[in-house]
Design a protein that fits this description.
Deoxyuridine 5'-Triphosphate Nucleotidohydrolase, Chain A, mainly beta, 145 residues, 1 helix, 3-stranded antiparallel sheet, globular
Length: 145
């Protein structure tokens, strides 16, 4: 188990939680003083009222909640968003409304999920050429259907 410190920046904030024992993500909720309208086709940064101290060697990945996204047509345009281990500010979730009408977002609505993932620090090694593979430089559909 990884220990992650959390700071509650707003008393209306909801501490992230998993809804089932098998869930990988911890739900993040909107922390709003009043309801916010998400206009069709626009991005709105939604506060969570929370800040985290993620341990070095880990990152926070903020991802859409599948039910919220598919039922309401609301996505995260930067998904997954990364929260670096040295960031100590409030977590905001950018939401883009792709639905057919404006969406009224209420305080406490579960809008995203947070996963804490280990990452590797890498060293780039510059070479004049790369080794060949069967695929080579083919991309964007080059492997067929």
């Amino acid at each position: 188990m990884i220990q992650v410190s959390i700071q509650i920046l707003n008393p209306k904030a909801t501490i992230p939680e998993r809804k089932t024992d098998g869930a990988a993500g911890y739900d993040l909720s909107a922390c709003l003083e009043a309801s916010v309208t998400l206009p069709v086709g626009e991005v709105v940064l939604v506060p969570t009222g929370l800040a985290f101290a993620i341990p070095m060697g880990f990152e926070g990945q903020v991802r859409p909640r599948s039910g919220f996204s598919t039922k309401n047509g609301i996505i995260m345009p930067n998904a997954p968003g990364t929260v670096d281990s040295d960031y100590r500010g409030e977590i905001f979730v950018p939401l883009l409304n792709l639905g057919k009408s404006d969406f009224l977002l209420e305080n406490g609505t579960r809008i995203a999920q947070l996963l804490i993932k280990r990452y590797e620090v890498i060293a780039f090694h510059v070479v004049p050429t790369l080794e060949n593979t069967d695929r080579g430089t083919g991309g964007f559909g080059s492997t067929g259907k």
